[in-house]
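F.,

This is the one I mentioned.
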């Protein structure tokens, strides 16, 4: 199944024909579905069905848009998206595929039903193929991308504030970061790729840290000092980096994106995006506070775990972090 996922993404990467690109996305979706519901838990099955329905809808929309484009222009190449209707349809379909606001509602629900490893694949690898297509079609409809991007940064900020579940918080964080990438996509595509890469690295280390701690709620994080003390002291750095706090590396893409937006004389938009990053920063701070700054036995919200010697390899994790 993992091989098929890789194959689907590679087909989309290599394709210059709309049908082939669509086929790659479909293979990708079909390969991850069994991985999502392998635990046979009702929540996992529910999440899988939700994911399947949204991805199928998006893929059908994409196919419809590419057929419309072929009908108007008479050819199937990805580069020739000169008409606004098919281009807008494709952009909306891909936005639904990666979970940009206001088409984001499936993302937190689906991620909440999965275990952390599959959630990691969903937050990182599954974003690659649609992004590749978005970069290639280079939508002429500038305002649509800006609206999607700004809505995503705001929704990603507001949505995560009220959450206690780590996976939902990570889903909203993913929506916010994708919004930042989409904002700058048409002005500076290579900066979008840099942001995507930085986001992958930070998300990877965060998911793996939570997996080592075996924690899915903020409350259970307060016990991580007894399980993995080094990781507990490292995770706030990842979180603040995700929030985009200087001098951490997550600040770099945000700074460059704000600079690019001001160069394009979109200063009000840049201001709004920067303010929405503060909302995200608030809930990252909340997690880091729960993880490192509270002396757990004094505010015991859950039972202490047995302090058995850990058999998990923390050295590769520390290097990743």
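My design for it:
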């Amino acid at each position: 199944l993992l091989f098929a996922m890789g194959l689907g993404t590679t087909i989309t990467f290599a394709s210059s024909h709309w049908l082939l690109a669509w086929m790659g996305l479909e293979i990708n979706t079909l390969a991850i579905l069994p991985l999502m519901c392998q635990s046979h838990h009702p929540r996992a099955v529910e999440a899988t069905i939700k994911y399947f329905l949204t991805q199928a809808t998006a893929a059908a929309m994409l196919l419809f848009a590419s057929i419309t484009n072929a009908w108007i222009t008479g050819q199937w190449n990805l580069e020739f998206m000169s008409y606004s209707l098919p281009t807008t349809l494709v952009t909306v379909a891909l936005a639904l595929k990666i979970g940009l606001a206001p088409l984001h509602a499936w993302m937190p629900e689906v991620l909440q039903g999965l275990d952390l490893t599959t959630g990691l694949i969903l937050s990182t690898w599954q974003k690659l193929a649609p992004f590749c297509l978005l970069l290639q079609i280079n939508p002429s409809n500038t305002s649509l991308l800006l609206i999607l991007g700004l809505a995503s940064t705001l929704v990603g900020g507001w949505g995560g504030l009220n959450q206690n579940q780590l996976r939902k918080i990570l889903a909203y964080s993913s929506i916010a970061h994708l919004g930042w990438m989409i904002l700058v996509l048409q002005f500076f595509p290579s900066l979008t790729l840099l942001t995507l890469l930085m986001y992958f690295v930070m998300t990877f280390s965060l998911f793996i840290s939570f997996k080592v701690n075996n924690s899915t709620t903020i409350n259970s994080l307060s016990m991580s000092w007894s399980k993995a003390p080094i990781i507990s002291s490292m995770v706030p750095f990842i979180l603040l980096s995700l929030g985009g706090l200087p001098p951490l590396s997550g600040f770099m893409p945000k700074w460059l994106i704000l600079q690019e937006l001001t160069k394009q004389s979109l200063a009000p938009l840049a201001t709004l995006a920067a303010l929405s990053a503060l909302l995200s920063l608030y809930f990252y701070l909340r997690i880091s506070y729960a993880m490192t700054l509270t002396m757990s036995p004094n505010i015991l919200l859950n039972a202490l775990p047995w302090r058995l010697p850990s058999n998990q390899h923390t050295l590769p994790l520390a290097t990743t972090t």
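The chain has a mean pLDDT of 90.

Talk soon.
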